[in-house]
Amino acid sequence: MTSKGPEGEHPSVTLFRKYLRIRTVQPKPDYGAAVAFLEERAHQLGLSCQKVEVAPGNVVTVLTWPGSNPTLSSILLNSHMDVVPVFKEHWSHDPFEAFKDSEGYIYARGAQDMKCVSIQYLEAVRRLKGEGHHFPRTIHMTFVPDEEVGGHQGMELFVQQPEFQALRAGFALDEGLANPTDAFTVFYSERSPWWVRVTSTGRPGHGSRFIEDTAAEKLAFEEQLQGWCQAAGEGVTFEFAQKWTKPRVTPTDDSNPWWKAFSRACKDMNLTLEPEIFPAATDSRYLRAVGVPALGFSPMNRTPVLLHDHDERLHEAVFLRGVDIYTRLLSALASVPTLPGDS
Questions:
Q1: In a domain, 292, yes or no
Q2: 80 annotated as ligand-binding
Q3: Key word Metal-binding present in the record (predicted)?
Q4: Residues involved in catalysis
């Protein structure tokens, strides 16, 4: 059981605030403390814990609740441990104190992005196990590093490892965004980022020419970049710091049995879903690229979008409802009947 927190506070909230206090902030995240925290959760929940070092100092932690039918593909619940930097002078409270105000808002970096979801996974599993549930499909919880700087030393490497293949993931959930309305946003794809680094050598001065009416979505964009560098003169080169060319879409209709189970569970809870393409890029793209359908879902409605913002915060009641929602979702997803790809 989780130790009791401040008087009257729900133990799940106490655990959430404890995780928020771990300084996994870029550019030097304390991954060691986060992994130790997760190992402790695994021990308390009676789950196996696997640590996969995908790059020096970058460990993917996998907590596993085995299903009753090992021939079925598994459910993968992904979240990232790292959080973006802060400018403390713009915060009302210390961003790593996890301060809770009198209204129940918890102020912390990572409150929305995405330590809330990590704890919601854990607490949903704890609740289901405690109630004596058993499901056909195995549930894996993966906690990855490096997402906030592109995932190149995290999930991008992990999906190529034999340890990932051994998980036999059939479907994945990952992060979404808050929604200020009554609805919940669910993401079935995302943008394909191209980060370009241009190097110009020589005397300082006006070293660029911008051509009107160009856009990254045009197929000739890379040729335009080459042309611009050539036009600028000798000694001007460019390289892609990130170039994603494998966009994938997870179907959001009943042709997709995972969406069918997900959406029906939400309908049973009277949740209104708004399917969208994610406005940025998450680790879901690496999962989809290797054939694992994925949905981005952070159950936070009636909540302003504050990821990466000053005074990032989440109301404890919204957080706790998210635990309830994931409890129902995991029951539905881990009970999806045998599919053609399961054998």
A1: yes
A2: yes
A3: yes
A4: 82, 147
